[in-house]
């Protein structure tokens, strides 16, 4: 809580999307450094198979099913996949990993299944069935990056906070996710 700008929250949602003090997350502004897009557990996979993207709990799905777009998905054949897994106690704001320009956000309607291990075993390709949003980011130093945000139980809102096709700086807030009711 010492990293938070304010520690008096009226509800859990305020805690969920709390603002952090600038010094809480020092940012490496070196152009060769790709920063984390947020707090949480990061998994990395290289040379990805577009038909078997690894889920957080070891299940697989295709990138085309996740985005609903084969043209976008095909650009990332044999690329690198970074997965950020957030828990309820994590800071739920996402940031740009580099300076660049982000295209429009694409929303895909879906459910709000829990992403706990029991649900993942019972619901095939759960991440492709939950509400999700994706956007293409043209990074200055790392090429095109596909951002995909996935909702889950109680995470009914993803709010994009950037302006489409306008230059952004590394570490600028891209989106927040909150506990608000599904829209």
Quick synopsis:
With 183 residues, the chain is α+β, with helices and mostly antiparallel strands. The chain has helices at residues 12-16, 63-67, 70-74, 117-122, and strands at 41-45, 53-54, 60-61, 81-85, 93-95, 100-102, 106-108, 132-139, 143-150, 157-160, 167-168, 173-178. Strands 6, 7, 8, 9 and 11 form a 5-stranded antiparallel β-sheet that branches. Strands 5-12-10 form a 3-stranded antiparallel β-sheet, with no helix packed on it.
How is this structure best described in words?
It is a single chain. This protein is an alpha+beta fold and 183 residues long. It contains four helices and twelve strands; from the N terminus they run αβββααββββαβββββ. It has helices spanning 12-16, 63-67, 70-74, 117-122; strands at residues 41-45, 53-54, 60-61, 81-85, 93-95, 100-102, 106-108, 132-139, 143-150, 157-160, 167-168, 173-178. Strands 6, 7, 8, 9 and 11 form a five-stranded antiparallel sheet that branches. A three-stranded antiparallel sheet has the order 5-12-10, with no helix packed on it. A two-stranded antiparallel ribbon has the order 1-4. A hairpin with a 5-residue loop joins β2 (53-54) and β3 (60-61). The longest helix is centred in the middle third of the chain and has 6 residues, at 117-122. It is globular and about 45 Å long.
């Amino acid at each position: 809580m010492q990293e938070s700008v304010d520690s008096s929250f009226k509800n859990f949602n305020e805690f969920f999307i709390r603002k952090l003090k600038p010094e809480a997350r020092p940012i490496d502004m070196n152009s060769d450094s790709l920063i984390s897009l947020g707090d949480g557990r990061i998994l990395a996979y290289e040379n990805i198979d577009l038909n078997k993207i690894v889920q957080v709990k070891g299940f697989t799905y295709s990138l085309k099913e996740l985005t609903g777009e084969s043209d976008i998905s095909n650009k990332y054949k044999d690329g690198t996949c970074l997965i950020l897994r957030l828990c309820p106690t994590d800071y739920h704001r996402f940031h740009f990993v580099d300076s660049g320009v982000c295209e429009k956000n694409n929303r895909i309607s879906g459910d709000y299944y829990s992403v706990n291990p029991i649900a993942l075993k019972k619901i095939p390709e759960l991440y492709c069935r939950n509400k999700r949003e994706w956007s293409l980011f043209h990074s200055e130093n790392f090429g095109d990056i596909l951002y995909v945000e996935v909702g889950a139980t109680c995470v009914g809102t993803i709010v994009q906070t950037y302006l489409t096709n306008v230059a952004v700086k590394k570490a600028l807030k891209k989106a927040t996710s909150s506990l608000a009711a599904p829209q």
